[in-house]
Structure formats: structure tokens, C-alpha cells
Amino acid sequence: MEMLLIELDKQSPVPLYEQIYNQIKNDITDGKLEVGAKLPSKRKLEDFLNVSQTTIELAYSQLVAEGFISTKPRQGYYVQAIEELAYVQPVNQERISAVPEKEKMQLDFSPGQIDMDSFPFTKWKKYAKEVMDDTSKHLLSLGHPHGDLELRREIARYLYHSRGVECTPEQVIVGSGTEQLLPLLIRILGPAAIYAIEDPGYPLTHHVFYHNNREAVPIPVDEEGLDVQALQQTEATVAYVTPSHQFPTGTVLSAARRTALLNWAAAEESRYIIEDDYDSEFRYTGRPIPSLQGMDKSGSVIYVSTFSKSLMPSLRIAYMVLPPRLLEHYSNAFIHYASTVPRFDQQILARFMEDGHFSRHLNRMRKLYKRKLYLVTDTLAAYAPEITYSGEEAGMHIIINVQIGKDEETLIEQARSKGIRVYGLNGYMKKQTGQQPAILLGFGGLPETEIRDSIHSLMGAWQTPLSRI
Length: 469
What we know:
By secondary structure, this protein is α/β, with parallel strands linked by helices.
């Protein structure tokens, strides 16, 4: 089969993969696609529909899971006989209820993984045991809407000493993840707010704005961070930035642009900056980059961060620091809300921080990740000049630029065929630029003893020659 006639409505609230799934399924049940017919490859359909290969993969995976099509290794996807299905769901009731599980890989260079072997289980268990006690009966009831005071006090103290953030515990709002706090923030900023987002940037943020029906304007990022001059040419009133370690490029917002961004926000009362400081704890060269919030004189910066990288993603504790002019508005809007983080978890973390274990854990992890980073960059150096890298000053991933005559999608697919998952920079961009292939290489979750072999395995999948041994 050369191609499928599929009409997509990119303005529809129905996800694109679900639209593709629905139309192929309908064609099969209506007999428009014959049993045994071969469907277009994921790459061909991706190009034809101008969507990501992940979107096609989700649709095909769901059709395979429900038995409408089958897959043959190295051959493709084929239409199944629907009479073999135990039950065919009526067309007018169709909805996809589950997203297929992520394909398991032998090696995953995810930028979101942490070193789980180094988590201080013994210390954490000690505080958990202390909290889970008859004397903690009060924690069974709902706490303060902003989060328990003990934890907010520790967060405020930590932010002042480590990031230069000036705030009181009253300004700290605790929630179960950035994706839970952002919709609350969006509500108090009002429907007229227009958001500027970094391009490339964090996909979850883009989805939050989209699903809350908020306009988001992509602003390009270069070697100095967000292009503030480009921001000034838009109607945006709120800028969402990762200034200390831009995700995913790893650049740091330059001093000149920090000043320009703060001046942009201070120029109008309706303007705000959302500063996402997601992994500022892990900086390996030079002095720590000061927070925008600590430099802000107009009360325009909303500071957001999380414990996902510093402790564990599953803890689901994030927080934001509201400027005074937004705090009363927030409190009035959500006076009947309760914090979405279990109070026992809040208390364990508060005691862990109060006794200095959080700071000590960060110091240990900073040294460990720095060693891992060295192993990564030292191994990659053997593949120069075809392989270069950037963004090594901080964080748990770097960007590698690959100049071996292959495009980004080919590199990702070649790695996948060898059981290796990597992430292309284009996947984080709203506007494609046609630049040289660039790959995010996360090293946080890789065992220290396996990093060199992991890099060599990836280079082998790409058939990248060694320049030195």
C-alpha cells in the first residue's frame, strides 16, 4: 500500500495518534482495508502526515494491541481479519483508554534518570519510621493548603543559602509535581496571559499550556539562552525559562540577557517570569549561577523547582515561590484546596532537610555526577571531530552533535535497532531548524562502571570511527 487517506484536525482536542487510530480502525471494520494489506511504514506515514514518528507509533501500537493489525519483524504492519476478534467495539463508542507501554531497551540515555544506587535509604527509613508513629496522629488530617509549615520553612532556608532566593515560608507553595502546580498558576495569572516558551524546551510545559487552552509563543534559544530581543517582539506577558541550565540545550542565560529579561518583566505590571530551576544543584564548573528571583527588584519572578532530580522522581514533591503581589490572589483563589502531597512525605522530607542530610546528599551526588560526566566526555573525545558535545557545565545530560552524514531520525532508529534509546533535539522543538543532528545524552542513571562501554556501544550502533585509541 502506497499511502493511507487520513485527515487530521490539529485544532481538535482529540490527540493526533487517536485520530489516526480511529480512522485506520474504521477503514478496517468498514472493509476499506483488505485483510493482509500492508500498511505504510511509520516513517512514510510520518512524512506524509507531517507528524512525529512517536505519534504514528502510538497509533500502530494500539491497533496491534487490539488485534486490528499485526506486525512482522523487518517487514511491517498488516491488516488482520476482524472476524478473528472476540469483540469489535462500536464506532460511536470508541476511545483509547491506555497508552502502550514504552518499548524496553537494554540501554537508555534518558536525561530524566537519576543514580538510584546512591539514594540514602538507611537515613530515609529512619525518618519514615519516626514519622509513622502514634505521636503523629495529627498528620492523618488535612494540613495547610500551601503545605506543612515545617517543610516550607526548610525549603525557604535551603533556597536562600543555595540559590539566593529571598522568600518567607508563607510564599512557598508545595505540590505534587510541576505539572500540578502550573495549572494553579495559570489560573491566577488569568485567561489574558500569553506565554513565551523556550524553543527547544521542556515538552511537559508545552502540554500544560496547550491543555489549559493558553496561548504559547515559542522563542528561540541560542548559546546565550533565551533570545530576549525576540521575546520583546511578541505579545507575550509571561516568560517561562530555565535560565541556570536550559533544558534541553544546557546553555546558561547570559548576564546581559538576565538583566534584559528582568527589565522586560518590570516594564509592565502584568508581566511575569516563571523561573524553572529544575536541576540547579548540579553545577560542575565555576560558581553557582544566581537565581533570577534573587536578582528581581520588581516582584515579577515566580520561582519553581522540584526534588525529582535531587532526591527521586517518585517523591512527587515540587514547590513554587510566589511574589507577594500574587500570594494573596493565590490564597483567595484556592482557600478550600488541600496540599496534594501526603503529609507523612512532607514531614519525612522536612526532617531529612532539617538535620542536614539533604545538603550532604547533594554534595555526594554532585561529586558522583561530575565523575560520570568526566567518563562520558573523555570517552566521547576519542570520536572527535565527528562527535562534539556541549552543555557539560551542569545537570545530568549533555548534547552531542553528530556529523557522520546521517540525519537525526536515522541516528535514533539505528540506536533503537541495537537496543539503545536516545533522544533527538528535534523532539523538543516547536519549530524545526534543519540544523546538524543533535542528541541528548543522559548519564545520571548509568552505572559508573558501565559508562565507557555504553558510549562505545552507541558509537558502534552509528558505525562512528574512533579517531584515537
